[in-house]
């Protein structure tokens, strides 16, 4: 479901009003030149994405005051507002329709302050995750949430989706690293929520309500985030297993140990094959599945010894990698497994309780049998979050932009399986436009009603990001 | 501000209806026998606490269904409901008036499940924090939030206040350990929010909204909490300094290091003197202030070496304690510093950014000069959360139950100072009834309006805990 396309006149009138009253704010009218803003990474990749050749209107504010002015005047004109970060999202949450006003934070890119003494940074939402970390590294600090897309995703978008990433197995997701926010609400007012202190319980936790709210409650214009010291040491460890099932089962041995690695990524056999094919690596020669692990902090030798014993006992071939080899492996992980252009595909980001990961991998055979699809997954195994890839070979002569219903059905089936074992539709990408039906399966009618009541309390006219999230 | 006392008839009619329609639920009418339920630990200790000799009506549900029935029928009768855990709260959040119905979770004490494989426990709200940890210890697991009151405080109350504690410097506050909740809303419906998986971003984060909401949004009847492995090792370290100022300044040396202890408690000079007087310890002989630290995890020797070097360089006398001595020291910390019955006193739980802790201690001299009070504080220094104790000697012949305005003014002044350096009114106890004026100083009118709108969205008639929190 997306919001209805308005008559062009409402949007045109809004753009004209903005250009007259606020010439200092760059606003681009709806045109073929803004067509990129119809999409985020999810709908751009999706075969069934919008084929419109006319984009939305796009505003590029350069200050929080600009955002306030834009929201106030859009509300006056009754034009829906789509908040947008770097547009790298994987759920359609930042996609727009031709009749909407996109407020992009791509020019709000200042790092306003870094305080090593308080272990906080204050940043504008358009700062890229990797930019912030590059800025912090010389100070011996880092910002823990690290989505695989960190080179292209912005802090504002990370906040909107409560982004996870590789290291959140140990350090928590974005929510655990956000202390305070400045947010523009639907009436154009600016509120500051949270505090610079690490702790604080005064009033309801509005920071957590805004984090992960997918742009439906307000627009974040500044964030105070928590920093951490770069650990005393980091070491990459590989554990190869003969099969996918053996590797998945071995995760329980880590849970039963006292070692909590900063990263635990699991690659099943088809993923290793796919990476090898696209990156000229030779991972599959070393085993039929891989746990790629990062240990960090103090006592690396002690940690490694306990981890090695735990994984060796369940069939793992465990090795501490050199720094150089470790870098190559992490680069392979972050680049993704590659896509084959001769197949339709569908992804996702289900999360399940840790002990249920092996059952999810075992269920791939059921899907294959039932729908004729190929299924593989790389997993943030330390916290039970999987990125499945469901593919179906495009037959000769078939329309590549028209995947058959079986692809959708298989995706749906897998998500319902995750729900049946206590999991969730989305572990870190958000619901956006592409998972709304499934979100309604996960959330009971009463819970959905509560969500809508909270939305209406802060945005009574439904100005922000209509048709998204829940 | 407390809610107005209703005419007895409304409450009497409610109790009669409950006894007739639900004889299986124990309900005690308003009477002198329920007078304890007028108070929590804050208002019981406060000289100006309610002097009523008639308590509220009290219901003791034994199941979630009982809670639903109670809420539904209280709503029908228009009688306000005060949710209550163990009554150990320090902000008046669980205090009641004679005209209200207290729904106490003291009989919902089942540990429903412990899953080492998923690292979760499912518990009813009346389980005491220390009970849960005693149950988990043989499994090699622990529940991280550990308020100093853990022997008497319940998980439900911890959730209502987003309780902190000693170890949250490293492991986070209650919010970071709660994955899912079953909550009874004001219409008597039961919703399940969150999920058993560690990650999940489907919909707005209702779990975080309920955690710390001080009973104004609903009644938690079950919680799925996150567990952690008991660390490979724990070591208690003391660092004594010549003065309060030197010890407070030394905190920056920990921040500048790569060591992040599981606990960092700071005792100023008057606190050491007070503990010695009440516990026959001899801490003051060892120094004029104390950092009491717990290191945990792997590489304890490496951690200790880096910490010792950092603190020795700024004048600390650093020592690793034996396990036996460590236990004595933590027991002294958890028992509190003791109260002198010949003084009026006022407490609190302000939190400030880490680097501002020394200024807070320096400000005590200003308060002493300005109001003639004595001020000291023990601090959860790892996260900037302080527990000040402001005392004023009761002159001969004065009424002990009537402290002078200067005590209130000094408390108020200190909180405003914390706010002026980026801090918050309450780091972990909540606002309850006793800090509402100050919460209104911290939260802007627009932020307060947003909080009230969210409250109204979930509890439109204001059934739950009127007059509390914000």
From TrEMBL, chains A, B:
SUPFAM superfamilies, per database record: FAD-binding/transporter-associated domain-like, FAD-linked oxidases, C-terminal domain
Cofactor(s) the protein requires to work: FAD
Cross-referenced Gene3D superfamilies: 3.30.465.10, 3.30.70.2740, Vanillyl-alcohol Oxidase, Chain A, domain 4 (1.10.45.10)
Sorted UniProt keywords: FAD, Flavoprotein, Oxidoreductase
Domain FAD-binding PCMH-type: 51-230
Record-given protein name: FAD-linked oxidase C-terminal domain-containing protein
Organism in which the protein naturally occurs: Microbacterium lacus
Native organism taxonomy: Bacteria, Bacillati, Actinomycetota, Actinomycetes, Micrococcales
